[in-house]
Amino acid sequence: LPVAPRAGVAAFGILLLVVPDVDVLAGEAEFVLDGLVVAQRVSAVGGRLYTDTDLAVRSCWQGSCGRVKTVRQLGGELGDLGIKVSAVATFTLGERVVVFVRARRDGFVSPIGMVQGVFHARTWAGTQVLVRDLRGVSLVDHRGNFEGTLEVLDESAVRQRVATLGVTSGG
Q: What is the pTM of this model?
């Protein structure tokens, strides 16, 4: 994809994604981790812009996560250049997230299903929940095409489900 000038940060095409549930995400993920967003930066590599997000691993739900994982996603703004990609997850410095990721050849990790593999940890009515924000994303499943919504899942239920499906590691 070409890098576009910031004056018209470019969005390329429409992307239809198949909605994976936690079982599918865990089955495809090399790592599932609970982490804190500690840094973000944009870099130009091979004529493309990438946003790298460092996650300090709080706990590893699947795989052997190490202490820090860097999520690399296409898109970002650097100087007067910018590129916007539909269905890319957003992260906020200091927030806690649970991500389902696989390793890339370049040493970084990427979320399974782009935004679909990223859950934002929140407290709702005294319960720890995971929020997956699929608003603005075109999706497809057995019912056909539809627009994504905000999904709220019980964190302990998701963690328990991942533990029954994969190999859990402490670090």
A: 0.83
DSSP state for residue 148 in the 8-state scheme: B
The residue written with tokens 């944009």 in the block is 42
Encode pLDDT of 114-130 as tens digits.
999 999 999 988 899 99
The closest of 71, 77, 89, 82 to 12, measured between CA atoms, is 82
**b/e burial code for range 104-128 (CB count within 10 A of at least 16 → b):** eeeebbbbbbbbbbbbbbeeeeeee
Report pLDDT digits (tens) over 41-76: 999 999 899 999 999 999 999 999 999 999 999 999
CB 158 within 8 A of CB 29: no
Report the alpha-carbon distance of residue 50 to residue 47 in Å, rounded.
10
Q: Are strands 127-133 and 138-141 parallel, antiparallel or unpaired?
A: unpaired
Rounded to whole angstroms, the Cα distance separating 22 from 28 reads: 10
- Separation between Cα atoms, residue 36 and residue 148, nearest integer Å: 25
Unique residue bearing structure tokens 């946003």: 51
> What's the burial of 4, exposed, middle or buried (CB within 10 Å: 0-12/13-18/19+)?
middle
